[in-house]
Amino acid sequence: MNFDLTEERQMLQDSLRRFLRDRYTTTVRNSILGSDSGMSSEIWSELAELGVIGALFSEDDGGFGGKGFDLAVVFEELGRAGVVEPFLDTAVLGGGLIAALGTSDQKALIEDIIAGGLQLAFAHGEPTSRYDLNRVGTTAVVSGAGVTLNGRKAVVVNAEAADSLIVSARESGVVDEEAGISLFVVPADAAGVTVQGYPLLAGGRAAEVILEDVVVPDSARLGDAGKAFGAIEAAVAAANVALCAETLGAMETATALTRDYLMTRKQFGRPIGTFQALAHRMSDLLIELEQARSAVINAAGHLESDRRQREHHVSAAKNLMGRTGRLVAEDSIQMHGGIAMTQEYELAHIAKRIIMSDHRFGDTDHHLERFIALSAA
Amino acid sequence: MDLSYSAEELAFREEVREFLKEKLPKELSDKIRKGLELAKADMERWHAILNAKGWLAPNWPKAFGGAEWNAVQRHIFEEECSAHHAPRVVPFGLSMLGPVLQKFGSKEQQDKWLPRIMNGDDWWCQGYSEPGAGSDLASLKTTAVRDGDHYVVNGQKTWTTLGQHANMIFCLVRTDKDAKQQEGISFLLIDMDTPGIEVRPIILLDGSPEVNEVWFTDVRVPVENLVGEENKGWTYAKYLLTHERTNIAGVGFSQAGLSAVKRIARAEMSGGKPLLFNPHFAARVAQVEVDLMAMSTTNLRIISKAAAGTAPGVESSMLKVKGTIIRQEINDLARRAAGAYAMPFASEALEGSNDSLPDPHEAGPVAAQYFNNRKLSIFGGSNEIQRGIIAKVVLGGGK
Q: What contacts 24+ positions apart, CB below 8 Å, involve A15-18?
């Protein structure tokens, strides 16, 4: 057993932390949050140059990482700084699916992704699918011209900025069958694609994506017809590792802010951290933070394991992060008092990142049920 | 012990229902049902409707134009308002200042201000908290120095809810710097149009502009606007806080919130079935419903006792702590129920419309409400302060 980072990952962590501390200040982030695009292309390019995206792909795909621990290192730092740029959507999900299923022609896109020149979005969830990955009602019908897509995708993060959408659609089977689901690379400006965008509470943007008789060539399909589910599940597992690591980083910021505030804010003539009621809660947060760190390590360390082990650890982590994240976000706000209720205070944004990560790819309850099902299997 | 309602009470409930069906404007109930913010005009409209019926001030004595309802009547009214998605009355004039003036104000003050509150001529806000005086309210530093027929006020108040709408503010100010903290405080009524007052909005973490900072620079306040005696303001402030807390359990809000959770969870599908029938989610809903049923009775027990003349002390702290825990748990369930659709930021909702947002279950801005209602356990004396009050009474050192 060795819980130290490799030298390369340690260097990546150090340089990323330094960069974000200097460049991604609260002021910079607030201006990004207030902007129309909800992201900074300048920050995106600079982070790409720093190797942040390359770290999310394997050497075979032109990167220098791509393992669970690479994701964990990168996203923990992004979370610590409250970064809202869509690395999860473009690289882990969009890029990850192309890397997993793409032909060599399709994989040519990855070079652009790593260089920071391409944006993607994963258009999978639907208005009635909630967190079920197998429930796909959008249809794909092969015809002479190619493949025709029809359906609606819900809360597609980064859809407006995306050059292409990775769209899941059903080619056969009933609505909740794992078999029969395919993936297609659909140019965002393809005829019949409507993108209705809106801002997100925790930063960034998403959209409802309506597909009306969208025709794509057969070459737009990723992998074999109807056989994409396994890759979707694996990409979402990677995304959940990234989300958990991001939440861990945000929880570290929340607890650090809270500790500082407890030591400096005075009421009744003394720092409020000297009141036992608050001191003990602070201690509880730090205990839970270490549990969260271990859950992230477990999930990241099993991302390359067989499906059952991988999913077991991912669901365990997402369940635990949902619970401890809520505790840390709520107690950090409570111990600060009114100041943490204001938008301009650092913790407000961080708390929103923590809570809203529970709404992507399965909340704490969903993953508890999944954990039970996987344990019984 | 008898848990059944009397014939009179049942008739009263019927009367309330009829009134709400007939007089509650649909535009207002739609906004409340969808969790949208009310505009100032919306709140004024509802006040006027209640005032015309004589139901605007349930807790005021009839002598002052109130309805003088007992605890059970208020409870029934509250329940029916929740069920019909009626707006809540803005509390600053009616629930906070009104009772203070009735008990401690001069005849002139009562005659002048109470009818204006009823008629909606004034919009009051509360000047209590300061940047350095939150939980430790008595450490407030805003000063009022006597100068002839005026007090000259300097300082800063914060967390002033809906101060942007207000033309009047009631303030706690320090009139004796040398006295012990609680003994040098006075209670002043200040016209917001007086030169030297500046209101700056504070944007909350959900994006809402509901609270403000209020700055006072050499603001001249006529001495007749002093309530009661100079340096006795802390007594009045505490009296006001106990009145503020008679509705602190927020049972009506919780009941309305719980119905909203069920409505959203009935529309949201999980595994091909409504989320409401998911055993895990159903258990969470049932758990909080069980708590709320007991809370409703705890609330009734305590306010009945208060109506019989016993001042609520430690009991109102209990209502605040448990009531806010329940309300916040319901807010948490609502955001959970909405799934991915909790993520969109409904900035437009603040203006009273979120039509541009995807909201297939009409869930409304549930995540924003979840964040906004973190305030419940912070303001009006944080839950830690309330637990301290309970402990002090129970473990000694208290009265």
A: A15/A50, A16/A47, A16/A50, A16/A52, A16/A73, A16/A74, A16/A77, A16/A78, A17/A77, A17/A80
Q: Which of these, A261, A272, A355, lies nearest to B384 by C-alpha position?
A: A272
B203 interface with A at CB cutoff 8 Å = yes
Partner B contacted by A200 (CB < 8 A): yes
Cβ pair B204:A343 closer than 8 A: yes
Q: Which two tokens stand for residue A83?
A: 């970064």
CA dihedral sign, ordered A48, A49, A54, A55: negative
Identity of the amino acid at A234 = A
pLDDT at B351: 46
**Structure tokens given for A209:** 């994506």
Q: Which residue on chain B is closest to A34 by alpha carbon?
A: B207
How far does chain A reach from its first CA to its final CA, in angstroms?
Answer: 29
For tokens 């830690």, the residue is B384
Helix, strand and coil in chain A, % to nearest 5: 55, 15, 30
Contact residues, chain B, for A348 at CB < 8 Å = 205
- DSSP one-letter string for A49-64: HHTTTGGGS-GGGTSS
**Contact by Cβ (8 Å): A376, B349:** no
Each residue's pLDDT tens digit, B116-133: 999 999 999 999 999 999
For residue A154, give Cα distances in angstroms to A182, A210, A360, B196: 17, 9, 12, 51
Residue of A122, A120, A190 lying closest to A154 (CA atoms): A122
Of all helices (H) and strands (E), which one includes residue B169?
strand B168-174
Please identify every stretch of chain B with a pLDDT value under 70, giving residue numbers as ranges. Answer: 243-246, 307-312, 347-357, 397-399
Would strands B273-274 and B269-270 be described as parallel, antiparallel, or unpaired?
A: antiparallel
Reply yes or no on whether B244 is catalytic.
Answer: yes
Cβ neighbours of A369 in B, within 8 Å = 280
Whether the pLDDT of residue A179 is over 60: the answer is yes
- The amino acid occupying position A338 is G
pLDDT of the residue at B316: 85
Contact by Cβ (8 Å): B345, B208: no
Judge contact between B162 and B199, C-beta under 8 A.
no
Q: Which helix (H) or strand (E) holds B199?
A: strand B197-202
DSSP B261-324: HHHHHHHSEETTEEGGGSHHHHHHHHHHHHHHHHHHHHHHHHHHHHHTTPPPSHHHHHHHHHHH
Q: What is the mean pLDDT of residues A205-224?
A: 97
Q: Evaluate whether A100 touches A235 at the Cβ level (below 8 Å).
A: yes
Residue of B233, B164, B219 lying closest to B190 (CA atoms): B219
- Cα dihedral: A226, A229, A235, A241 (round 10): 170
Tokens 């011209």, located at residue: A145
